[in-house]
Amino acid sequence: MELQSDVREESTMEPQSDVVRESAPARPKRHRVLRRLAWGVGALGLIAVGAVGALLAPHYLGGVLPVPVATAPTPSPAEPQVPEPPAASTATAPAEVVLSPEAVARAGIKTAKVEVVDAQTAIQLPGTVMADAYREVKVVPIVGGIVTKVQVELGTTVKRGAPLATLFSPELAEAQTKYLSMQAMLVADHQKLQRTQQLVEIGATSRQELEDITAVHASHATEVEAARQRLLLLGLSRAHVEALKHPSQVVSDISVPAPIAGVITNRTANLGQVVSMGQELFVVTDLSQVWVIGDLYEQDFQTVHVGSDAAMTTPAYRALTLHGRVSYIDPRVDPQTRTAKIRVEVPNPQGQLRLGMYVTMAFTTRGGARLVVVPRAAVQTVGERQVVFLPAPDEEGKFVARTVQVGPAHGELVTMRSGVEPGETVVTEGSFFLRAEMLRNAPASS
Predict the structure, then answer these.
(1) Can you state the angle between helices 2-23 and 26-60, rounded to 10 degrees?
(2) Taking a C-beta distance cutoff of 8 angstroms, is the pair 353, 290 a contact?
(3) What are the helix (H) ranges across 61-169?
(4) Rounded to an integer, what is the distance from CA 288 to the centroid of its chain?
(5) Which of 160, 211, 343, 358 has CB atoms 3.0–4.6 Å from 328's, for a disulfide?
(6) Residue 120's beta-bridge partner residues?
(7) Which of 52-66, 329-343, 363-377 has the highest mean pLDDT?
(8) What mean pLDDT comes out for the span 95-108?
(9) CB–CB of 118/369 below 8 Å?
(10) What is the pLDDT of residues 266-301, one digit of tens each?
(11) Domains of the chain, residue spans
């Protein structure tokens, strides 16, 4: 039994060992296949990540990829490097432009001398145009009545004596009637005086009665003259008053004339309006001369005074400059603004300045300093520097660009701080053409 069991055990053990021997070589082979697949998948993943990074890098880095930079070897102390001259030194070197006679004529080259002028102090103040108060008249009637006609509108230009409005005035008619009545009484008294004189001559009456009649006659004559003067004051002409002999000649309409020549700047009269004596109906303003009112600061009191000249400019007429003279400076200083009112009288014959316009007043005074100036057109800008072109004295058609330092501008002149001397000649018109030629030839010269 033991022998059989051993045989069985041997027979059962032998197949298992065979299986183990057979599976042992297959397992390492499977691991090698899996390992190769894993390496292949990893390589493909790295390739995909690199491709995606190459596509997204320009988007996030602004399209700029790092470029390898070659670093120069550090020089040894025994061989020091010589620094290169700065590029700016070559840029500021005088440049020359040579033109043919035809090019000079085509460019329209013109020159001017470098001049020396007195330094000027300019003060600019804002101002407002106002009417000359001494040339502005309010038109009022000298008798009350009802407005029956208005002959002018706002802005109408009138001459002196032109009718502005017509009034129906019962007061005027009453004054004429009273004048006729007194005139008739005067005629009667005159006749009575003549008869009394004749009676005194023949002794038919006393001299006392003659004296009484003479006094009454003189009193009536005075009253007639006063009534006649009143009619003249009410607007009737002298010829009309002299011709007033009958009640049928009495008129009730009175004309309101313009007292001066000017422009109607205000009107309050309307048809049917009842007006009284002294009521304002119109304002006539003579605009041939106006006032410009501004504020003068304390620090400018020594510069600007009564009689100083002033130049007026306005945005409405940019090419127009009017001149006036200071006629008044207020002796009082505003405690808040620390300024004093200034008044400038400006002739305005063409009527360019209108009431209420804003203008700029410029006061110019000469100082003791002297300035070197050139025309504004002579200065050209090249990069960060300013240059002027000077004709070369040794060669016709040759121009030299010289760097200058400019100062403040005064109108059409520019102050020169350095670079040119008084008496030298600079190019004014055509300097821009020379600048273009110099820049065009600069790369070739370098």
Answers:
(1) 30
(2) yes
(3) 87-91, 101-107
(4) 23
(5) 343
(6) 366
(7) 329-343
(8) 85
(9) yes
(10) 999 999 999 998 899 999 999 999 999 999 999 889
(11) 21-64, 95-110+379-445, 122-132+286-368, 144-278
Q: How far apart are CA 208 and CA 91, in angstroms?
A: 122
Distance CA 11, CA 226 (A): 178
Kindly provide the residue ranges of all beta strands, DSSP E only, lying in 230-288, ordered along the sequence.
253-257, 262-267, 274-275, 282-285
Q: Which tokens is 315 given?
A: 């945005």
Task: List all residues 6 or more positions away from 375 whose beta carbon is below 8 Å from its beta carbon.
Answer: 112, 412, 413, 414, 426, 428
For residue 124, give the nearest of 298, 343, 300 by alpha carbon: 300
How many Cβ atoms from other residues are within 10 Å of residue 228's Cβ? Answer: 19
pLDDT given at position 324: 95
The residue count of the chain comes to: 446
Mean pLDDT of 127-134: 95
The whole-angstrom separation of Cα 259 and Cα 283 is 10
- Rounded Cα distance, 143 and 229, in Å: 14
Tokens, residue 345: 């009288």
Which amino acid is present at 256?
V
Place of tokens 């197949």: 15
Q: How far is CA 248 from the centre of its chain?
A: 64
Cα dihedral 326/327/330/336 (nearest 10): -30
> What is d(CA 209, CA 173) in angstroms, rounded to the nearest whole number?
36
Measure the CA–CA gap between 426 and 404, rounded to whole angstroms.
12
Burial zone of 388 (CB within 10 Å; 0-12 exposed, 13-18 middle, 19+ buried):
buried
Query: Over 80: is that where the pLDDT of 161 sits?
Result: yes
* Pairwise CA distance, residues 129 & 312, whole Å: 10
Residue 347, pLDDT above cutoff 80: yes
For residues 236 and 243, give the distance between their C-alpha atoms in angstroms, rounded to a whole number. 11
Domain 122-132+286-368, CATH number (from 3.40.1160.10, 3.40.50.1820, 2.40.30.170, 2.60.120.260): 2.40.30.170
Distance from C-alpha of 295 to C-alpha of 337, rounded to nearest angstrom: 9
Phi-psi region of 259 (alpha: psi -120 to 50; beta: other; left: phi over 0): alpha
> Exposed, middle or buried: residue 143 (CB in 10 Å: 0-12, 13-18, 19+)?
buried
Instruction: Map tokens 């691991």 to a residue.
Output: 31
